[in-house]
Amino acid sequence: MRLTRRRFVQSILGAGAAAGLPVLFSGCNSPSKASASPEGVPAQLLDLSAGGTFPKGFFWGTATASYQIEGAWNEDGKSESIWDRFAHTPGKIKNGDTGDVACDSYHRWREDLDLMRAMNLNSYRFSIAWPRIQPSGSGGVNAKGFDYYSRLVDALLEARIRPLVTLYHWDLPQTLEDAGGWTNRDTAGRFSDYVQLVAQKLGDRVSDWMIFNEPTAFVDLGYLEGTHAPGRASLLDFLRATHVVNLAQGAGFRALKAARPTSRVGTAYSMSSCEPATNSEADKVAAERAHAITNIWFLEPALRGRYPEALTFLPETAMRIQSGDLEKIRAPLDFVGINLYYRIIASATGAIERTTHPQEWLFPVKMDGGQQGPKTGFGWEVWPKALYDMVMRISRDYNRPVIEITESGCSYNDVPDASGAIHDTRRIEYHQGYLAALARSIVDGADVRGYHAWSLMDNFEWADGYSQRFGLTYVDFKTQQRTIKDSGRWYGKVAAENRV
Ligand code: FCB
User: Fold this and answer.
1) Would the CB of 39 count as within 6 Å of ligand 1?
2) Alpha-carbon gap, residue 244 to 470, rounded angstroms
3) 29-55 tens-digit pLDDT
């Protein structure tokens, strides 16, 4: 079983083009060869080429994360994070890259703000590095670390750009990992203390918050696959971390609301529309399981106080679920953040596969990427309708919640031409397609308030180091010079006109 993208991408790459996989325009519940999306829109009628306009006041933004852009890994009292430790461990990151300097945004944030201004943006999603705020993972605030974010927030507000703050985008203080990290129940309490501190300090100016970035991804890659920090590879750790992170989501939500009752609080979930590979009942069940694990493993606990029902069985003892916990994991979020890049094709696993490994037995589903759309530099399939399907499904299943697209984007390694310009046409096509699909979902009834392109600029792409460029801005990592790509200029026009 592969839970999240980075691993299943490898399996796609290894698999090559798969014969007999779905034809265009299918949806999560409908078999891939059917001609209608699950929401009943005939696939042929979903014409995305027309583009669309967005509601007044729509948020046009970009997203970044502290470890991926800040650098200054040991400055001004910041302590070591699990990503510092992981990246400094030989063999963990492609080419031995680290985030020690990254885009040096800790020192160059004013330049980054100028980029946003040049692109006419009115929202900026960035994350706070917990080890800058509370170097030992508990106790009082490190004033210098806090000042950095405080200045950034002030400058954003002055530029009329909404700060959308992620409280945790994967850089846990290493001291907390040494005490068990996300598998230790105490970490949920530490996290809510940290949230309370940040809310007290910044909540007078920041009103929109995200508790976590992609809990499924960091729990899967960090605790089950071991390809991300802290690099553990254990099913038991994965199950325990799942529940502690859900407890932290609930506790963090309550801490924020207690400190700032009028704040708007969400989480950014990694999501992929899940299509059954064939018409068979078994594959349809597999698609529902894929949806449960990939998309709502942390959302269902927040909104409904329970784990998704599509799984075969919940290992409550292994997860260390205690009585009263289902109340504690509830977090009635004000909005649902969706990070979406591609779709998943799900198929049933055979009886033999299920007995080969405990995780195959617990989550019996095979997940692959689609093979029909063009591929990005990372090998991810470009499939705009995945965004439409996902937004429609969340709208339908959770009673039309407020949705923000908190990330979407693509890696292409276009470089400057002789004149210094970066003609990244494929990135323009990507965002054009995904935005047209989003506009259509709004027409069809979804309450979507914003779109954040990943990313403002090229940056440190986790285990892949600097080998994948996702930015609307090109960064020369030798000189730290920033150059807005053609896609950034195009996006600026879209933001100004509020339409694609
Ligand atoms: C997402 C992460 C983000 C970035 C993009 C490409 O999963 O949230 O930090 O790495 O993928």
Assistant:
1) no
2) 31
3) 333 333 334 444 444 445 666 689 999
